[in-house]
Amino acid sequence: MKLAHFSDVHALSLEGVSPLSFFNKRAAGFANLLLRRRDKHPFALFEAIVEDLNREKPEEVVVTGDLTNLSLPPEFKLARQILDRISAGSEHVTIVPGNHDVYTLGAMRAHLFDEAVKPYATSDGESEVHFPIVRTRGPIAIIGISTALPSPPPLADGWVGGTQLDAVKRALRQHADKFRVVLLHHPPYTNRHSILRGLRDRGKLQKVLAEVGCELILHGHEHRDLRREIAGPNGPIPVIGVGSGTYQDARPERRARYNVYTIEGGKLIATETRVHDAAQNRFVAQ
Ligand SMILES: [Fe+2]
Ligand SMILES: [Fe+2]
């Protein structure tokens, strides 16, 4: 089966937003956005991903967070409109939040992310959003973790939390007969950005994964293609980070991309990276 993975599309929309919305943390975020990001994540590339998915037709699609820039209602609305064009439908598209999807305490308390993408973030048999998301689809089980925290800049760290981690452990045990794919926004290992941008309780998550295992871990957040392994009970578990799905950049290694994994016989047998080609205005295999 084919599993597509994109991340960090950072849909930008300021439609109908009053300057008062930018008080406090958003003021810093907004200045940053205007200076550096305005044209860096055009939503036309998000639309181009959806067109490519609808041509390639992977059975499942997963999204590892940062759908928006500032967790603004018009950004969620824009992201949802584009997501709804994926022909596989919300049953086959699973989304976890990133730090930009709970950018302020207000956005988190109002559950803006949960409400905006509800059909994409519910567990099997449930109608409300509770993390972890647990979905079984054919030979795979998808376990989607929320690591999103409203952290003031320059922080962009994440947190799983003990209650969620216990539920992750139970779900991994329960679906040990499947190819278990764990989704989370932040990388689950230590890197050079860990102090400000890392997953705070990564050590605890690693301990659970080392004990109960999973077959594949997918993340975003770093806006780069990354390959690592972390310890599992029966050998190393592959950890794959994908670059931003919408990054407008001349450098081929940074340009907008997404991955398609081929899973056969309980194994990850191939990873294809599809990169946006500016001349053709479409995604092509790297
Ligand atoms: Fe991001
Ligand atoms: Fe992020």
Draw up the topology in text.
Blueprint: E1 2-6, H1 25-37, H2 43-56, E2 60-64, H3 73-83, E3 93-96, H4 105-109, H5 112-116, E4 133-137, E5 140-144, H6 162-174, E6 179-183, H7 194-197, H8 202-212, E7 216-219, E8 226-232, E9 235-241, E10 257-264, E11 267-277, E12 282-285
Parallel strand pairs: 1-2, 2-3, 5-6, 6-7, 7-9
Antiparallel strand pairs: 1-10, 4-5, 8-9, 10-11, 11-12
Helix pairs in contact: 6-8
The structure holds fe (ii) ion (FE2) (2 copies).
Describe what you observe in this structure.
By secondary structure, the chain is α/β, with parallel strands linked by helices. The protein has one domain: Metallo-dependent phosphatases (Purple Acid Phosphatase, chain A, domain 2, 4-Layer Sandwich). The chain contains 8 helices and 12 strands. It has helices spanning 25-37, 43-56, 73-83, 105-109, 112-116, 162-174, 194-197, 202-212; strands at 2-6, 60-64, 93-96, 133-137, 140-144, 179-183, 216-219, 226-232, 235-241, 257-264, 267-277, 282-285. It has a 6-stranded mixed β-sheet with strand order 3-2-1-10-11-12. Strand 4 and strand 5 (140-144) form a beta hairpin. The longest helix is centred in the N-terminal third of the chain and has 14 residues, at 43-56. The two termini are 20 Å apart. The mean pLDDT is 93. The protein binds fe (ii) ion (FE2) (2 copies). One fe (ii) ion binds next to loops. The site of one fe (ii) ion has 7 residues, from loops.
